[in-house]
Model the fold of this input.
Amino acid sequence: MRNEIILTEVDYVRLNSLIYRLLGKDNQDIRALNFLNIEIKRAKKIYPKKIMPDFVTMDSHIEVKFLETGKTKELKLVYPQNANYEDGLISVLSPLGCALLGFKAGDSVAFEATGGTQIVRIEKVLFQPEANGEDLL
Done:
C-alpha cells in the first residue's frame, strides 16, 4: 500500500467546499468530514489534464476486489447526495470512498468497516471523467 494521494485541483476545490458547507449541519458525521479533510490536505494536487487515467477521481467508475473474501464489486465514487451503495454509488464521505480517492489501479487501500479493518485492491478504473475530457476546468 502506498501513502501518496494524487488529487485534481478541481476535486480538491469541490471537496474542500463540500466539507465547509457540511460542517455546520447537525446531521453530519464530523469524523468523516475531518478524515476527508486530512486526506485532501495531504494530497498532491495536479492540473486535471495531467492526471493519469488509472487514478480514482470523483465520479470515477472502478472495480475493486475485497481481499478478505475475494469478491469484486463495481463502484462509482460520488458526492454524498448521490450515494446509494446497493447501486454501487459510494460516497466520498464513507470510509471506503474516502480511502479510494486519489489512489490508482493496482493499489490496495485499507478502510474501517463495521467488522473491523478491510482491504480492497483497485482492480481497474473503468471510467475516469478527466480521461474522457470531463471536469477539466
